[in-house]
Amino acid sequence: MPRVMSKAASVSHAAPLSERVAAAAAGLGAVAIAADGCSAAEAAADSFAGGRLLKAYGHDARIFDLCFHPASSGLLVSASDDCTAGVWRRQQGGSAAAGRYMQTASFRGHGDSVMRAVWSPDGQMVASGSSDGVVCLWQPTEAALTSRHNLGAAGTRHLATLEGHPEEVYACVFLQQQQQAQQQQQLQGGSGSAGQPPERLVAASGESLFLWDVSTQALLQAVPSPPVPKAAAAVPERWRPGYLFGVAAQPDGPLLGAACSDGRLRLWAREGGDSAITPLCTLPWNQAMGADCCFAPGGLFCACSKDGSLIVMDVRQGRCLQHVQLDTPLLSCTLLQGSSGSGPGPGSRILVASGADGAVHFVDTETGEAASLLPEAAPVRPLLCAALSSDGACLAASGEAVLLEEQDMLSSTPSSAQAAPSSKMSGHQPAPKWSPMHIWQRSKQAPP
């Protein structure tokens, strides 16, 4: 059973971005209290813990990334160290597998580990970035979106290959015109409406961003990182250069942000209808590798680091609002908006981060209060990624692969499309290695 624990964290407030936010003083911030007496972070974690937890099996190596379809919490795409990207569908109808997520297709167009997989805003295609330095554009077939069986490679259609990145591709971001993005935010209102077809894609490789035209597959621009200020403190040589490990686009503004391997944050501006990207600035953060970042409407920018630190800043005011220190490395982050009826509050924003301790951590961006959700007592394995559906109804997390015994597979009762073939369990062959996906379907009785 999943467990929720309140999490102590050191917090500082309202420091200027020009100061070293890593030097934030320890101390607990004020706690936002929900109607039932628990904090907003605990209420958010409880709403998932009180719902339905499913496990799905398909990849036999680490899962680096997960992304829900923009218009449906019933469709999910994954990126794995087994060199494939998977398509997952929540099964419908009266079968024994109803409600479960089953892998229905597998994209096999990469020659190395798939690091990122993301749906386009209109939900019609997927971009996957790989350690082979390539971004592939592809789409699940109609059969894969309705099937109760795993169609494998036959369930995907390869659209294009974007080559020329110097190193691994650590991020893929589809760009929407800002007016379209704002209209989508207004129309969405938790309903999960899909957006317009994308015109641009940004990929991160090494220290640079690469701007692509989606329709023509033409490289429009290779954009370097903003320079590091001369007065900036030095970082250990092993963290240089500043690889862009996580990239995000501002939904209601012109900014792109990145959390980088040298412990700094970098910002760029989108210009001329996304015809160009201009480097803006490099910001000091801490002395550990950045892992991921995300934006929220209203100028909120958040990032997490492998030393367990989280930063919350307002890019419009140019100020750091929170610096929270947890006791485990954090490897990905996303934001849970509190606008829906099942959210912890109409004005609250909860940062959801996956941890190396095997837990999903919920942090209130206003107070810094944190709570943790453990999907299982054992085996504890690092969670490398966490994703939320656009309506906030579902949370998925996964990470390192584990060696499963036969009784583990039987107790999880996955479908034949998800489970290992029984022949692999017999004879003297070793038990297979699998990377389970944890998927929470949020309780409808969540605190208001």
UniProtKB/TrEMBL annotation:
<feature type="region of interest" description="Disordered">
    <location>
        <begin position="408"/>
        <end position="448"/>
    </location>
</feature>
<dbReference type="InterPro" id="IPR015943">
    <property type="entry name" value="WD40/YVTN_repeat-like_dom_sf"/>
</dbReference>
<feature type="repeat" description="WD">
    <location>
        <begin position="107"/>
        <end position="139"/>
    </location>
</feature>
<feature type="compositionally biased region" description="Low complexity">
    <location>
        <begin position="411"/>
        <end position="423"/>
    </location>
</feature>
<dbReference type="InterPro" id="IPR036322">
    <property type="entry name" value="WD40_repeat_dom_sf"/>
</dbReference>
<protein>
    <submittedName>
        <fullName>Uncharacterized protein</fullName>
    </submittedName>
</protein>
<dbReference type="Pfam" id="PF00400">
    <property type="entry name" value="WD40"/>
</dbReference>
<dbReference type="InterPro" id="IPR001680">
    <property type="entry name" value="WD40_rpt"/>
</dbReference>
<feature type="repeat" description="WD">
    <location>
        <begin position="56"/>
        <end position="98"/>
    </location>
</feature>
<keyword id="KW-0853">WD repeat</keyword>
